[in-house]
Dipeptidase
Amino acid sequence: MTALPPPPDPAPSPAAPPVPPGALRAAVRRETDSVLADLAEWVRVPSLSCLPDHAVEVTRSARLLQCFFRGAGFPVVEEWPTEGLPAVYARWPAADPDAPTVLVYSHHDVNAVIEEDWRETAPFAGVLREGRLHGRGASDAKGQVMCHLWALRAWLAATGDSAPPVTLKFLVEGEEEIGSVHLGELLERHADALRADVVMVSDTMLWSLDRPAVCAGVRGSVSATLTVRGTRADVHNGAVAGAVGNPLTELCRVLGSLHDGNGRVTLGGFYDRVESPTDHERARLAGADLDEREWTRRTGALGAPGEAGYGITERVWLRPAVEVTSLSGGHPRLPGLGVVPATATAGLVLRLVPDQRADEVAEGLREWVAARIGPGFTYELDLPGTRSDPYTTPAGHPAFRALEQAVGAGRDRPVARMRNGGAAPAAQLARALGAPVLFYGTGLLEDRWHSGDERVEVEALAQGAQTLATWWSLLPDALAGD
């Protein structure tokens, strides 16, 4: 990638935190064993929201999290039931009634597991090995929740204070991995309890341990399932081959037309709201010096194809995308059946950037599919309502600048700005609560989210604990001048 010019507005020099960094760092280290033991215990709870028969385990996860909050000293800890799976709410008021309030959003449910993809440990072993804690949810996102508790315990130990420097609230839901289906109801029903000056989403990634960067936004998301039917039932191909519609062939043809020869998405109007990144924004990308070799090493990819004219980080953070996430049809385990299958199905995820709107993109996909399916086939396009708009943090907000200072404290490299290529309900939280949303997570590309052998770097959690505690200490003065 061609080198980019230096940022025209460098991040501010770190302000002096109220607690010496050395004292805070020592307190973080002292808490390590206790925090990791709690996290390992939590990872061993298989809180799989995608499996109805694991609902009791998701509830058990919520109850264990409540124990962690109470053990840390939170005076208010509640389980918030939904028509689906429970969320956990916790609140600890600052000693100063005028101190700002921070609401932390995250989740305690975990993604599905495919047992044979786990080669280093069992999915819910919670094993600590060579500086990493292994298990589903260790990084996404139980480790991220535990990082905040680690920060709080270290802050109290280092200062001797009896309360955090800001009022802390937590909303940790149990349905994020299935689309946060009841989050809107929780936000509406508990609007007063959730009121805050700043919302922090703690379900995101760092760029790397040695490149300090602050996430300034996330892409939005639309999910879809497309099923194509060619016959009423499977038919012996020897009897009908060449004279009936094969839904697998048709589905592959349609999916193959999602992108043109330059890697651009072919949905009508897809780019109408998309602005090309400015030189300024390109210059602030944390991965501006990333090359394809590092990308493939860190992700396990075999290459880095994509939209022509944009670098890797630009495509992941600043450009929209469409991915096929699953493809099924026929009977691959019984090839001797020799049938033309009746149906074929594909899962799709569309990633959106400012200023795209999820509802508009979903409607565009509906029109695109209707125009692409050929004669001799019927189809169904399922577009769940659990979709999210992209969100960008107001970069000039004092809480964001304070977070840049906290990330840069004690680092010898300038703090860059990044985005996250995945999605989070940030826009939904901002609309419902009327507060700016910031992002701080401890995940890394190497953590294998949603894949086999998920793990979290202990050092990422430790750095995160120090960063968060520093940010809390800077926030009262930062917002007082707002």
